[in-house]
Amino acid sequence: MDYNRLLSKTLGEIKPSGIRKFFGLVAEMKDVTALTVGEPDFVTPWHVREAAIEALEGGKTYYTANAGLNELRHAISEYMLRRFSLSYDPNSEVFVTVGGSEAIDIAMRAVINPGDEVIVPLPAFVCYEPIAKMAGANTVIINTKPENSFKLTTEELRAAITPKTKLLVLPYPNNPTGAILTKEELSALAEVLRGTDILVLADEIYAELTYGRTHTSIANIPGMQERTILISGFSKAYAMTGWRLGYICAPAPLLSEMLKLHQYAIMCAPTVSQFAAVEAMRNGDEDIALMRGEYNRRRILIHQGLKDIGIDSFMPEGAFYIYPNIGKFGLSSEEFCERLLYEERCAIVPGTAFGECGEGFARISYAYSVKHISEALEKIERFVKKLNV
Amino acid sequence: MEQMLKLIEEDATLTPAELAVMLSKEEGDIKKMIAELEEKGVILGRRAIIDWERAGKEQITALIEVKVMPQRDDGFDKIAERICQNPEIKSLHLMSGGFDFCVIIEGKTMKEVAFFVARKLATIDAVTATATHFVLKTYKDKGVIYGTPKKDMREALVL
User: Which of A101, A244, A380, B37 has CA 20 to 30 A from A184's CA?
Assistant: First the structure.
């Protein structure tokens, strides 16, 4: 059979992720000190795992409501109010998804009509463009600039808006740059959006991992909650990646449509995970503080460590990535990372995996032990010394 | 200070330079702080945690409950100081409850430990009774779980 003729044309136009290819190389090699992984190195806190065990022992192996456990939706609503001063009705404005990824997918599919424009600031997590395209949208890319600390500016946003603009993706705290948006910066962006019909997809999965200042959501800015689809999850905040659990908070008329998609495609998120998540949200504040403190120390260590070997990077303020500028070594990002891998057995991700504007940069994850980071820094130092810049 | 203590309690090999970066302080200040804490007896030592069984060394650990008759003027302290002098004794705590001292001792064989109790511990005037419990297996000590360290099991995925 000629499968190519049978497959989706839209999907065919979507390229596989650049990180995938690089990870393929890494997987083939031994003794690699990798700083590539985008997930916490912590195990889910024991009391959360215990809640899951209890759920299993108690025979809680059934489906939950499509929108998720009533108890969990209430826990999320209470959590959003307690941690971020955001008020969402647990019955009509919150539902539980299979990770933030599902949330992004159904949020886009729920609002996009063919030909709509979706604004995606890059560098960013790799999924927004493909998902928007699959939903029939045209994507409008904004390449954020290092001199603005990779923050989306009002000028850039204004220039990208057309009458066809449906949705703005706001991925902060940002993977891969570690950039965040402050309340003032969000207010300025809100000023541009006010009075338009543009929706905001705020991917705030890293909201709990900010350093020095607490996270502000675009939904916190007056008049913005009504146009914001807020996406978050348990993976990063509570080290619960494998549980596959996220959630959406959005105005009821949007949420009920997304729920339709969710109920046909997914039915409901895993039940055991949901019981664990209730425990995490109710009694996990201390775990967050502990992990955040640990990431923060590593953040400072790796920033200084890179600086000491002559690699500049802007100080990340959120997530657990640093995004150093490797342009001065005269190699493309991909060359730099491949040679670092082959010559020193140290793996970092080329910045271009997160958009073309990532040329000259690389993503380094510091979700690793201090010893591991120090070892990697030694390897990077040996490598850049050879480059003789 | 507390933050630094927590860090080196977790990993004693962190250098003053590393600590300085992690705590946003000067290396010189960290060195000074450590010296002061050592002088005050807050930082008492730095040691590796070793699973001797895995290292192939025959060794036995015992927990001994000791009952004593406290002395008129010095209470328990004088007796404790005396018991502490034995290098075989790894830790000594004054306890609430059914006995007075909890002594942790290491020896080469069960016999050696038994002899130590009979000859050195039970013979102290103030000691009125002892009960020896041998450790069969250690699962966790000083916050560290014994066994092969877990490998990084995170898998590569698009993220």
Answer: A101
